[in-house]
Write a structure and sequence with these properties.
The complex is a heterodimer of chains A (about 280) and B (about 200).
Chain A: E1 2-5, H1 16-29, E2 32-35, H2 44-50, H3 52-69, E3 74-76, H4 79-94, H5 96-106, E4 116-118, H6 119-134, E5 144-147, H7 157-160, H8 170-177, E6 181-182, H9 196-199, H10 201-217, E7 222-225, H11 228-236, E8 244-246, H12 247-254, H13 260-264, H14 272-277
Parallel strand pairs in A: 1-2, 1-3, 3-4, 5-6, 5-7, 7-8
Helix pairs in contact in A: 1-12, 2-3, 3-4, 3-5, 4-5, 6-8
Chain B: H1 2-21, H2 29-38, H3 50-54, H4 65-73, H5 77-81, H6 85-88, H7 94-98, H8 105-118, H9 126-142, H10 147-158, H11 163-174, H12 188-200
Classes of the chains: A alpha/beta (about 280), B mainly alpha (about 200).
Chain lengths: ~280, ~200
């Protein structure tokens, strides 16, 4: 199985351990990830906030690169990048005039056969939980985890077409298959504040505080997420010391991947204590 | 026939109220302009308030999302463009997902923001505007966002020392999560052309 891979800017920076764990876990699963050549920033929140056309053209250039690469469906780890790529895909597929405009700006011809998939979607629906379970060497028994989806993966459902927007289950099912116990909680899809953390950290502290304390109240010992900014906000802006994992890191723990020590070093809240207590270190 | 008197009383009172609040003729051109630019059918809104109820930053806004729609319907251009609401929206899309009339307030906010910037209305939340700009400049330079240079530009222009973020930010920097040097796209010319076309065509 092979997929083309759009790392996004944070894969080599603020969500370094997400990228590292993704590659390790996919290697274990025997799935190849081919980084698309010369990818650019998806535009993120800043561009769509100020310039709609730019926010569609920047991710469209990545689509053109993925098309030329012809290395299989495009897999996107970061929820934000995924949402912006799906947004332009929606325009390219449904708005004839919009498509022509974007094609002219970027200089390519859109092929609707290219699939754009979220990393979590690939693990669940393309690789399949059976294959994932085969690789589990250390089931995450006793690990109570709150699965946090945030905004970008499940909204707007017309565009992302991925799981339920109010009570998604993808990560929960994945965690169960790894032997962990996902908790039932009501802040699964509440916004973490995104880049408001830079300009209004006090507001984001309140938002994150609610999410993390509700996870703890639901009985969770940790939170797992699929977005670099969510992970950073949840870790940086809380004060109860709840570890925040990328879901690929938890997969790596279950697969007993060698290099996982390198991931914990990058966290602000070290999960080593929690993992040791459950004999998962 | 007592109800005739009752109805005419109501009409008289409404006319008095209209005179008092200054709402006589509603300026509908603003509504039409925003509906056209955003593609959202704002006239369908019946103020169920689901958007405001689900909005994570509504309690910090000067005007709530549902009121923004009402104000647009009433032609209150200055108040809408000058609000903090359009800057505090983080595009979480909870509103657009839940609206029973499928009005996407997040897209509306994006449109209002773009209109405000185009018309030179100073952003009520100056720092948020500056941060978005610093991010876009960073991408325009090399095709990829670079945290260190982006934050430097933001801090210099905003005079915001980011005290709440500096300490944990420093720790993450020491952990190697913010590369000192930016990485550039090979096709810098392509990025430059995209930026030029997108800024020219507006």
């Amino acid at each position: 199985m092979k997929f083309s891979y759009f790392p996004g800017c944070t894969d080599h920076s603020s969500s370094l351990e997400y990228g590292l764990s993704t590659h390790e876990v996919f290697k274990t699963l025997g799935v190849e990830l081919v980084e698309i050549e010369d990818w650019n920033c998806c535009g993120a929140a800043a561009t769509h906030s100020l310039n709609r056309l730019l926010s569609l053209s920047l991710p469209a250039r990545n689509i053109s690169k993925a098309q030329s690469a012809q290395a299989g469906p495009l897999v996107v780890p970061c929820a934000g990048c995924f949402s912006y790529l799906k947004r332009v895909e929606h325009v390219l597929k449904n708005d004839e005039a919009g498509r022509k405009e974007i094609e002219e700006i970027v200089g390519f011809s859109y092929q609707p056969t290219l699939e754009i998939l979220a990393l979590m979607d690939v693990v669940l629906n393309r690789i399949g939980l059976e294959k994932v379970q085969e690789k589990v060497k250390k089931p995450l028994n006793g690990l109570k985890v709150a699965c946090y989806y945030g905004c970008a993966l499940v909204r707007h459902p017309k565009i992302t077409q991925l799981d339920d927007p109010e009570n998604p289950q993808y990560l929960d099912r994945l965690m169960k298959s790894l032997g962990a116990e996902p908790v039932e909680w009501s802040y699964k899809v509440d916004c973490c504040g995104a880049d408001l953390a830079m300009t209004y950290p006090k507001v984001v502290k309140k938002m994150v505080g609610k999410i993390v304390s509700m996870a703890k109240e639901a009985g969770a010992q940790c939170v797992t997420t699929s977005c670099g900014l969510c992970q950073m906000n949840l870790e940086m802006r809380q004060d109860i010391g709840l570890p925040i994992f990328y879901f690929t890191e938890l997969m790596g723990v279950a697969f007993d991947v060698e290099k996982k020590e390198n991931w914990w070093k990058k966290h602000l809240i070290s999960p080593k204590g929690l993992l040791k207590s459950l004999e998962l270190a | 026939m007592w109800w005739v008197g009752f109805v005419s009383l109501i009409i008289r009172e409404e006319k008095k109220l209209d005179k008092a609040t200054g709402v006589g003729k509603v300026e509908s051109s603003f509504l039409k302009e925003v509906e056209k630019k955003s593609g959202e059918n704002l006239s369908l809104c019946y103020q169920c308030l689901k958007c405001t109820a689900g909005c994570p930053t509504a309690s910090y806004m000067d005007v709530r999302p549902n009121s923004i729609i009402r104000m647009i319907q009433m032609g209150m251009r200055e108040e809408v463009m000058g609000s903090s609401a359009i800057w505090l929206c983080v595009y979480c899309q909870t509103c657009g997902t839940r609206c029973p009339n499928e009005i996407h307030i997040g897209i509306l906010m994006d449109t209002l923001r773009e209109m405000a910037v185009e018309e030179g209305v100073p952003a009520k939340e100056k720092n948020i505007h500056l941060f978005h700009e610093a991010f876009i400049h960073s991408v325009g330079r090399g095709g990829r966002a670079h945290e260190v240079t982006m934050l430097m530009e933001y801090m210099l222009k905003s005079r915001d020392l980011m005290a709440d973020s500096l300490f944990p930010g420093m720790i993450l920097f020491l952990k190697g999560k913010f590369p000192l040097l930016p990485s550039f796209v090979k096709g810098k010319e392509e990025i430059k052309k995209i930026f030029e076309k997108c800024t020219r065509e507006r």
